[in-house]
Design brief:
single chain; about 30% helix
Amino acid sequence: MILNSVKLPHFARAAESITEVFDSPKTVVIAMSQHAGAPCEPLVKIGDFVKCGQLIGDSEAFVSAPIHASVTGKVVAEKEITFLNGRTSKALVIETEGEQSVFEDISPPVISSREDFIKAIRNSGLVGLGGAGFPTHVKLNYDRTKTTIDTLVVNGAECEPYITSDYREFIESSDEIINGIKLVMKYLEIPKAVIGIEKDKPKAIAAMREKLENEVNISVRALKTRYPQGAEKVLVYQVTGRVITEGELPMSAGCLVINSSSVSFISNYIKTGMPLFWRRLTLDGDIVDSPKNIVVPVGTTLREILNFASVKDIPEKVIFGGPMMGNAVYDLDMPITKTNNAVLVFGKQKEIKSTACIRCGKCTYVCSMNLTPTALEHAYDARDAEELKKLRVNTCMSCGACSFICPAKRNIAEKNLLAKQFLLTADKK
């Protein structure tokens, strides 16, 4: 298997900025769906007073994750919000009041078995902090009679430009990352772990190797600085040499993949019982004077974050996430969710015009899934469902490398997204 990739400029200006805490938004908007799977239903109503860490939303569905209050204050409204992907969700609006105090019932979980551990992770509200937002307890609750996991792969690649939130986790919370890894290995009986970190983060690699000097079963793999190194299938291949085929998950190759910030959170939660209601973000962009990493309560609106930032011009484009796979924000009142890891703020944008494909083949060369993006584009334009299946469109991870490299500036990655949606609709018919 040949894994292609692309070299990106990283612009990691916030890499050495110690994380700051922004813990006093005036209002938070907490969505009841911040994860893959079923949304939660509100457990509190307008007029109720809530505290940090209090359970305010839950669901009986297996694929779901509970929602907790991120501030102390009063619930003043319930409304519907529309996410950047078009999905809608109920949301609770909470106005902060006075001292930000922690809910009285919070305490460290008591764990003596695998089942206790998985239950605790569910109660914590943890979802994948790498961006996908899949409920972590579901990932951990695999059937051991059918699936054998021999390697825990910790994703610390962080290969998108600008984003440095996971890097700061390595620098500021290396002990928590290691302890979280050991907890997962212990309760899931996984014999070894490998941490993948790109070579452009030498301080993180050195810090982790120093801490793990006497550990036999946990190692650090320095990865080439190429994009999309952090994609699950790519990462598993790079650290183990195992191939994950179309339609399969890393578990089919004996691997469990967890983001570095996720394992760090697991360690902190088992110690304190404090659920997931905050998020570390990288705040950067060409009109941000002082790039920084900040911790904000979940539900903090973009408007309040921009007020906290030092922005030297009127933003024309704001992105949640990285420039390759992130989404442009259309509303400054859009709230931060558990899956956000960056806010990128840009000024005046150059108009980019696409031209006809020149058949250079660069998009095929950089596709890490060995797809042929131009053929996929033609198949989608013809609305040819069978051809799209034959060309394996669902293998596309939407990394954006094809659009990035295209000299004709064609929106190839966006076409693939539309093609996958078209194929899903066609299959239902």
